Amino acid sequence: MLRAALEDAMREEIIPRNVAKLVRAQRPAKQEREPLTVQQVRTLLNSTRDHRLADRAIAQAVTNAVKAERKKAKRPAAGSSDKAKGKKEGKKRG
């Protein structure tokens, strides 16, 4: 945010350079999150039923469930062999 503000100030010739560009910002570590259980989703939806944003809660719950299923489908099966990995690496051409 500061970097963008200083960039605007530089573009408008208020400051000579953006010193924020000299700083390397660390990205926060990616955290693995567990999807809600069916019971947790039911509780959430029941408790937000009369809320003005209930439709958004439902949409978010469905979206998260779909993302979790897609992520689960992309994971390698337990006990998958290194041969399958080798096949993929063998297809790379340099």
Written description of the protein model:
It is a single chain. This protein has 94 residues and is an all-alpha fold. Helices cover 54% and strands 0% of the residues. It is built from four helices and no strands. The model has no long low-confidence stretch (mean pLDDT 79).
Set out the fold topology:
Layout: H1 2-11, H2 38-48, H3 54-74, H4 82-90
Helix pairs in contact: 2-3
Averaged pLDDT = 79
**Largest sheet properties:** none
What letter string, H or E per element, gives the SSE order? Answer: HHHH
- Output the structural class: mainly alpha
Helix content: 40-55%
Terminal Cα span? 40 Å
**Count of separate DSSP helical elements:** 4
Uncertain segments are none
State which percent range the strand residues make up.
under 5%
Task: Put the structure in a nutshell.
The protein is mostly helical and 94 residues long.
Keywords:
single chain, 94 residues, mainly alpha, 4 helices
